[in-house]
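I am still getting used to backbone structure tokens and would like to learn alongside you. Label the sequence line and the structure token line clearly, so we can match residues to local backbone shapes. Would you write everything just below, so we can both look at the same thing?
***
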Amino acid sequence: MRTILLVSVSAMLLAATEADDADQMKVISEIKACMASENLDSLDPIRTNNEARTSQEKCFIGCMMKNLHVLNSDGQYDSALLKEHMSHCPEMAKDPQKKADTLLVAEDCAAKVTGCNGYCECGVVAGNCLAQGMEAKGHETKYTTGFETSWRRCMLRSGPSGT
């Protein structure tokens, strides 16, 4: 099953090409920091497989999910954190229906992202839940769509989880 991390990483890489210099540096820095912290040498296997298969890939997903405010600093899914972040994101305000759907899906996932332990597990579980929920509401979960573009821009406008 594919994960939203592929979407997130792709969106962040796209952001690096579309953003101004300061934003480009932030995006690249976040990706490199997660790659380094999880001993991941390349993103190619994640892109090729459309899922995380190794422990390093799964932990990289978790790291990125923390940066996207999907997981809290303890590596657990935190619907309140995600909803708070999305509620104050100017990009989401541009599409009220998408914002409403995102908030509903975030809440729905609170009951589904259970039984995982730490950011390496919870990032994958949360990403899958969010992707499936948004797809069920008619939103594509590909990095070229507005949903991920909105998340990417929201991420650029704030620091990683806990900052």
